[in-house]
Amino acid sequence: MNNPTSSRRKLLKQMGLGIGLAASSSLPASAAERAGVTSKTKQLLKTDVLVVGGGPAGIGAALGAARTGVKTLLIESCGFFGGVAAWSLGMPINQMRPERKPRSEIHELVIEKLLAYGEQSIYIGQHQLYCNVDYLKVAVLDALDEVGCKYLVHLSAADAVVEGNRVTGVVVSTKQGLATISAKVVVDCTGDADIAYFAGAETMMETKEPRMPSTLLLGMANVSPEQIRRVNMRKIADAARSKYPLLPKSWRLKPVSNCSHYWINHTGTRDIGQFDMTDPFERSEAECVSRRQALQMTCAMREFGGDELKEIELVATNPRIAVRETRRVKGSYILTEEDAVKGRTFEDVIAWRSGYLDLMGYKFTKMMIHDVPYRSILPEKVDALLTAGRCISATHVSMAAGKSMGNCVATGHAAGLAAAMAAKKGIQPRELKVAQLQDALRKDGVDLKMGGKIQVNVSGDRGV
Known about the structure:
This protein is α+β, with helices and mostly antiparallel strands. It folds into 2 domains: 1-208 and 324-464, FAD/NAD(P)-binding domain (3-Layer(bba) Sandwich); 218-317. The chain has 15 helices and 19 strands. Mean pLDDT is 91; it is low at 3-37.
């Protein structure tokens, strides 16, 4: 378990991020000092609920909170929302409609906005959405606009503002310098538990067991389904590895929505080495070596794929490497592998997780649908903060049981709704009566009695 240290703030100063905007700070001196901001740092905005991170969890949280009428702001470091769902060039958004059944009004709102753009935007599988990501980016904006959620892109969270043990806002890095956003409640949907870590909450990250690999996905064109079916990627990789040593063991080309181009997901950095994606030096190394890997994969297919792949073209890669595992927040309950395998239920259930327990090459087993308790989205000691997505309180293996994006939307929905209810009542999220949150979730179409069930048609993978 890790606690934040002064090294992060030293790094910010070394990077020139200690220079703020030419406006006076409204923060108390103690809060400003702890946040590492100066008297020149201005307050950018005030809101009731601040959602940090615009991936599936953040989208769920923002939609869940804003639908209650509470003033909600969603911020994202990229230029668009969707997280890995939007970076990944076509990777399915799994567990959005398990067994082809609606999961909640929040999940369905995103699907509704995608369907409005026609068949090229989305293909719906057994439980997953295969999307053209550029339609997805706009569909998310449409959903946010419908519920009245405000949003800003190109804002990176640099620190948390903390008074006592309560988070009162977030420091963001902008093109005009550092600024603060004040909020009654913050929802950490960063994936890496950044806000919780900055605020001094206890976090967890394995150092002994292998971490799941990060991946830079590829977009490919100028190849047909028939050509793809006639090649064996493992044989191509084996034949080409002496020339292209960064090649993964194998990979597959899969179609994007109802379009004529393809995407490749693979185990990325697994065979290259272990990377701590919260370390700025290791993350930079992983990002850069992955870009070399993408070119080597393309060259290998063109040179060793025979007539079928000699004209294949690389048309895109992720704007940034897709990370599967970093820090998780320590809550008063830590979800375990046993919870997932046995389909455990809890009285304070606020979401459920379905799919496979998948550690991407290290472990792949079936599991049962299982509950997420409210205690697992609350940091153990820090107030005015909730977590959602892959950084909730869970063990290394249990986190892999919930990383499917539909599951992240679900925990985000619950966290956003809890944040809005707490902000309305003027109480801390841990003071919220769980029964009231559960009633609100049911009104939003969430079935809180799914835990313990066996999911059918769990894979439903779509080939070429």
